[in-house]
Write a structure and sequence with these properties.
Length: about 80
């Protein structure tokens, strides 16, 4: 089983501090489920956070949640890295 961590790009679209801490609880739940079932967890939040060092958040997810083509390619690469 593979679980993709929920992610959001803060400051893009409607992603504001109002999303938190509830959103952090969703991420924690994904980590707990992955641990409980021995699943692979893809740390998408970390992937998107690191990507913003190279390009603005809107480049990766135009509305802060749904990935652009570049964001989707980055997610696919992270997925491949996790299953190797």
């Amino acid at each position: 089983m593979i679980i993709g961590e929920p992610f959001a790009v803060k400051g893009v679209g409607h992603i504001t501090d109002a999303w938190y801490p509830k959103f952090l609880a969703y991420q924690e739940s994904a980590r707990e489920i992955a641990k409980e079932f021995g699943a692979i967890l893809i740390p998408y939040q970390k992937v998107f956070d690191n990507a913003q060092k190279n390009a603005p958040g809107a480049y990766w997810a135009a509305d802060g949640v749904h990935p652009t083509l570049a964001g989707a390619q980055m997610m696919a690469s992270a997925w491949m890295d996790c299953i190797k």
